[in-house]
Design brief:
The complex is a heterotrimer of chains A (275), B (264) and C (352). Chain A is mainly α and 275 residues long. Chain A has a single domain, classed as MetI-like (MetI-like fold, Orthogonal Bundle). Chain A has 12 helices and no strands. In chain A, helix 3 packs parallel to helix 7 and helix 4 (87-102) crosses helix 7 (142-167). The radius of gyration of chain A is 23 Å and the shape is globular. Chain A starts with 5 loop residues before the first helix and ends in a 5-residue tail after the last helix. The model of chain A has no long low-confidence stretch (mean pLDDT 90). By secondary structure, chain B is mainly alpha-helical. Helices cover 72% and strands 0% of the residues of chain B. Chain B is built from 13 helices and no strands. In chain B, helix 6 packs across helix 7 (132-157) and helix 7 (132-157) runs antiparallel to helix 10 (187-203). In chain C, 24% of the residues lie in helices and 36% in strands. In chain C, strand 11 (239-249) and strand 12 form a beta hairpin. The chains are: A mainly alpha (275), B mainly alpha (264), C alpha+beta (352). The interface between A and C is medium-sized, with 24 and 30 residues.
Chain lengths: 275, 264, 352
């Protein structure tokens, strides 16, 4: 027997697995929201009619946006310093960024539970120094969720941007200097535009990651700071409202895909050569 | 003597602060896990390894650790089993295969993990009445498939397929050429893919969240549940154990592809 | 404004490795000097020192009256053309060329006008709105050239600018580089490992090895009168034969080579530096003949060069490479003599 299309045979198992166990279930989730309803979009109308649900969506978007912007700023400056560091120090710093990234979300969120709790380290410190008289309740606030999320995503941002900065040839920076550009001018006119695609990739990863996170809002936000992820879990596993849960799932997926597509377009527009 | 433009001292100081911010919480967990108190505190008061012993006395931790490890090994192996041929085909038969295929294998990244977990729970666990562990394996295999395909692809993309053709021209059957010529040359990529997939699976919350059920849970899910009820240093010691796994993973990645691979 | 470039007593290190040692070099106003040598000889280091990307551990660099030694790179005002072009991938061709003008604070209309004019000079005005990835290697090199020229720098520097181009384009581009440099009359420093390129383009060539300049001369002088065995070997002298002078006869120096053969070197052409010296010649400088006055040899492998036959010859002093006329092919094993063509031979000091 001759196999005329060996390529197809080799990709078939993986393609089937994705189609059967991802494609069909996710499509089913999508179709549930339109079939199991009174009108085609009535589940979505219901979602957007509810003040509480709108608030969850808005809070999620707000936290994801703030997390993304903070991670971008912190990540870019840090990545710039890392990429300029001498070889040995650079490897140590990269290890220091990879380690938290590979440590689980639960463990890293837990750390902030220990720090921000009523009897936590930060309160101990503030009381000891005498800045506050009573322990502050910092848990279950939007701020707690944002701090932990930034903590979660900064390593990802650093590594992504270091990758792009390292990819900028030294020659271009030298060419810029030889043409009379000051280090600051070189940064803004050469480094920054060339790093743009990396910033966009990092922003997409952080936004979609924080928009769809579960463990961090669950531990540090609780019921008070419900986000789309925790809301989805509550609908599906506590109230067993699968249609409502599916509606949340579809909104999450659509936002994720739209962000990925939009930012991808933006990246190509800004810098057709570097993508 | 190289004239590298040094970043402004203020930027360097800021970066140092960021790394402190990244490391401090982890150091706090390590400290808290050693504290001779029944509640979590830092700096530790008195030193004890009691909380590490306690991990193995809490049966839920013992059980879920075994589940998580088994699940990671089975899920990752399955994923590599279908992922390696796919990565090979995508590189070797690039011209022959339509370009959308390479997108198929990153789909699990585009679909939020929570949505994937929820959908599998709905359609597979409930809809097809799959056993809980089987559903978990499916979810985790899908979760790590993009890593497997991407990392193996990355090392295949620098593989010179004319070596394989040379072997075939010397009389080696194609299937044997794959195992004796191609695989040994991308070994580093396969090992790195395996180990990265393993840690991703072990740390996963979002997919397992919907797929664990009565009697079967994974370590992170168990940890989450435990945290919401208890606040003793056992959680910290489990976390430290997980960090040690991370150290092991990093060592393997460094030895195979080098950690700088993760910046690409 | 045409100025000269002066490097005096430059020493440079990479870490603890010394890469340049007490190097001095003067490039005169409007002159094009090439640094020629194998990789690792220090030629690129020299250029990077002048550009300000490296700092010397000792010595000074002057451009005209200006001391560049401690100036940061962006204040040196040098037009630099890179080996891999180093065009900014995110800018159009026009913006690439205008980049240096922008740094000099020129308004956007004025710099677009000047960049367009420059692009016209290198024949790329039609591509001004493209980005570099749409250009061929030769076109990229023209843009790099335009970008360096448009800022009208007192010094132009080229770092192996043609090594990524194919052979035909290399010849075309080096003529163009020479033309543009001549036209604007600027002093230029050119780094290459390609001897033909260096000789064809330069007023003078500095041959470098191990962080030092061995000889700095006009290409014609280097080609026919290398200063030592290294340079001779580098410029293609295949045969370097140790000789010992032992007397004079008929206004010729009698010199003996290993194995006893005697060469008569006319006094008016040769001035041996010592009693022991080296006799250097290319294969063309030794004519293979059936008989005559020269080095006795047994012919070995014969290859066809198009303009001559080349022979590997066994002599008492070792293997020598010599050419013979197309009209008289000789078989391997033949006994022959190798007759020195004195206008193509030279003498060198013995290795110190």
């Amino acid at each position: 027997m001759t196999i005329r299309r060996p390529g197809w045979i080799l990709v078939l198992p993986a393609t089937l697995a994705v189609a059967l166990f991802l494609g069909i279930p996710v499509l089913d989730t999508f179709s549930t929201t339109v079939t199991d309803s009174t009108g085609l979009f009535s589940n979505y109308e219901k979602f957007f009619d509810s003040r509480f649900r709108r608030a969850v969506l808005w809070r999620t978007t707000e936290i994801a946006l703030i997390t993304t912007i903070a991670s971008l700023l912190i990540g870019f400056v840090t990545a710039y310093v890392v990429s300029r560091a001498p070889g040995r120090i650079k490897s140590i710093l990269i290890i220091a960024a990879v380690f938290p990234l590979l440590t689980g979300v639960v463990v890293r969120s837990f750390a902030w539970l220990v720090i921000l709790g009523k009897n936590g380290i930060l309160n101990d410190f503030l009381l000891a120094v005498g800045i506050v008289a009573e322990p502050l309740s910092m848990l279950y606030t939007e701020g707690a969720v944002i701090v932990a999320m930034v903590y979660l995503f900064v390593p990802l941002m650093i590594l992504t941007i270091v990758g792009v900065l390292e990819g900028i040839p030294e020659d271009l920076l030298q060419a810029s200097a030889s043409l009379g550009a000051t280090p600051v001018a070189t940064f803004w006119q050469v480094v920054f535009p060339l790093a743009m695609p990396g910033l966009i990739v990092g922003a997409v990863l952080v936004f979609t990651g924080s928009f769809t996170s579960y463990a961090t809002p669950q531990l540090l936000g609780g019921e008070q700071q419900m986000m789309m992820g925790t809301f989805l879990h509550q609908r599906a596993m506590v109230t067993f409202d699968w249609t409502g849960a599916s509606t949340i799932a579809v909104i999450m997926t659509v936002v994720t895909i739209l962000i990925v597509l939009a930012m991808g377009r933006l990246a190509r527009r800004l810098n057709p050569a570097a993508v | 003597m190289m004239m590298r433009t040094r970043p402004h001292p203020a930027l360097t100081a800021f970066a140092a602060l960021v790394f402190f911010f990244l490391m401090a919480p982890l150091v706090i967990i390590i400290g808290a896990s050693l504290s001779d108190t029944s509640f979590l505190t830092f700096p530790p008061q008195g030193l004890t390894l009691h909380w590490y012993e306690n991990i193995f006395e809490v049966s839920a931790f013992k059980r879920t650790m075994v589940t998580s490890a088994t699940l990671a090994l089975v899920g990752t192996s399955l994923s590599l089993l279908v992922g390696i041929p796919a990565a090979y085909a995508l590189n070797r038969y690039r011209v022959q295969l339509p370009s959308f295929l390479s997108t198929v294998f990153v789909l699990p990244i585009l679909v939020p993990e929570l949505v994937l977990g929820f959908s599998i729970m709905k359609s597979v666990t409930t809809g097809l009445d799959f056993p809980i562990f089987a559903s978990l394996v499916i979810g985790h295999a899908l979760l790590v498939l993009p890593y497997c395909v991407r990392v193996v692809s990355a090392s295949l993309s620098s593989f010179d397929f004319s070596i394989e053709e040379a072997a075939v021209s010397l009389g080696c059957p194609r299937w044997r050429a794959f195992f004796t010529i191609v695989l040994p040359n991308v070994r580093a990529g396969v090992i790195a893919a395996f180990i990265l997939a393993l840690i991703t699976s072990i740390n996963d919350v979002s997919i397992s969240l919907f797929l664990t059920g009565p009697g079967i849970s994974t370590l992170p899910i168990q940890l989450l549940a435990h945290m919401e009820q208890f606040f003793d240093p056992t959680i910290a010691s489990v976390s430290v154990l997980l960090m040690l796994v991370t150290v092991g993973v990093m060592a393997v990645v460094e030895l195979t592809l080098g950690l700088t691979f993760l910046t690409k | 404004m045409t100025v000269s470039l002066t490097l005096s007593g430059i020493t440079a290190h990479y870490g603890t490795t010394k890469v340049l040692e007490d190097l001095s070099l003067q490039v005169e106003e409007g002159e094009l000097v090439s640094l020629l040598g194998a990789s690792g000889c220090g030629k690129t280091t020299t250029l990077r020192l002048v550009a300000g990307f490296l700092q010397p551990t000792a010595g000074s660099i002057h451009l005209g009256g200006r001391d560049l030694t401690r100036l940061p790179a962006h204040t040196r005002d040098i037009g630099l053309v890179f080996q891999n072009y180093a065009l900014f991938p995110h800018l159009t061709i026009r913006d690439n060329v205008a980049f240096g003008l922008k740094q000099r604070g020129m308004g956007s209309a004025a710099r677009a006008k000047q960049a367009n004019a420059m692009l016209e000079r290198v024949g790329l005005e039609a591509l001004a709105d493209r980005t570099p990835d749409a250009l061929s290697g030769g076109q990229k090199q023209r843009v790099a050239l335009a970008r360096a020229l448009v800022i009208d720098p007192p010094l132009l520097m080229f770092d192996e600018p043609l090594s990524n181009l194919d052979a035909k384009l290399r010849v075309e581009m080096r003529v163009e580089i020479r033309r543009l440099q001549r036209d604007n009359g600027r002093t230029a420093l050119y780094v290459t490992h390609d001897q033909e390129e260096a000789f064809s383009i330069s007023d003078r060539v500095a041959i470098m090895n191990a962080g030092r300049i061995l000889q700095l001369d006009a290409p014609e002088v280097l080609y026919s009168r290398p200063a030592d065995a290294f340079v001779a070997n580098f410029v293609g002298f295949e045969n370097i034969i140790p000789l010992r002078a032992n007397g004079e006869q008929d206004s010729a120096i009698r010199a003996e080579m290993a194995g006893g053969a005697i060469l008569a070197l006319p006094r008016e052409r040769y001035e041996p530096p010592a009693q022991d010296f080296l006799f250097a010649t290319r294969a063309d400088g030794l004519m293979v003949a059936r008989s005559g006055e020269g080095i006795p040899a047994k012919l070995g492998l014969r290859t066809y060069l198009g303009r001559a036959y080349q022979y590997r010859c066994e002599t008492a002093a070792g293997e020598i490479i010599a050419n013979g006329p197309l009209s008289d092919p000789l078989e391997p094993g033949t006994d022959a003599v190798l007759i020195p063509q004195h206008d193509q031979c030279t003498v060198l000091p013995a290795d110190s």
